[in-house]
Amino acid sequence: METLEKITIGEYVAKDFRTAALFSKYGIDFCCNGNRSIEEACHKKQVNPDDLLQEIQTVLSSKSDSGIDFNTWPIDLLADYIEKTHHRYVEEKTPILLQFLDKLSRVHGANHPELLEINELFKGCAGELAQHMKKEELILFPFIKKMVHATISDELIEQPYFGTVENPIAMMMHEHDAEGERFRKIAKLSNNYITPADGCNTYKVTFAMLQEFEEDLHKHIHLENNILFPKATKLEKDFSAQS
């Protein structure tokens, strides 16, 4: 912890851009005033430096889930994982990215008009993803869990009002395609998230966060399109064959 305390805010962000979200949460400027220590910045914002350092350590030590074999998971557990990992990720990062993109558009929009289009594209993505996730959390995922429970307890389930699970799944997959296309446009406009020579630290962090957001979205869509949805469809057909 003593070693961490000696690192400046700017050095933290350079080391791992994910720490920028923590500084933003506490209103600490990591861009123009990134040469300050944690202690100095926390004192001005009346933030407990030990709490912030602990959060930073958690971010720095967090690992990738690339080694997990999700295909072996029960689908109700997978649905919970998607909601608690990827849905929460979107909910946490979206307001920060909206704030950063608005700032970049104001400060750099004249010289980089593509930022204005990126900002509008991400705003559209934020709104659509929020609705998309609620439909999964309130409609699709509960029905998937109901099917799993019925399998375990050997019970019958009533046909849902949406007819078959394939209907909401088709809608979710269509919306996945739309957001994938939206991010392809963002990647192209940002030159694959490469910061221009005149870009500030906020510029660099925002593009890094956008790239991470896209990567997380790809994982999110993969888990649903390639694992959760096909297994849910098969489970429903197994129910129909038994009834």
From TrEMBL:
Annotated source species:
Flavobacterium taihuense
Main localization, broad class: cytoplasm
In terms of PANTHER family, this protein maps to:
IRON-SULFUR CLUSTER REPAIR PROTEIN YTFE
Q: Does the keyword Ribosomal protein apply?
A: no
Protein name from the UniProt record: Iron-sulfur cluster repair di-iron protein
Pfam families named among the record's database cross-references: Hemerythrin, ScdA_N
Please list the residue ranges annotated as the Hemerythrin-like domain: 84-232
InterPro entries, alphabetized: Hemerythrin-like, RIC_family
NCBIfam families under this entry? Answer: FeS_repair_RIC
Where is this chain's protein located in or outside the cell? Cytoplasm
Point out the gene that encodes the protein. Answer: ric
What keywords were assigned to this record? Answer: Cytoplasm, Iron, Metal-binding
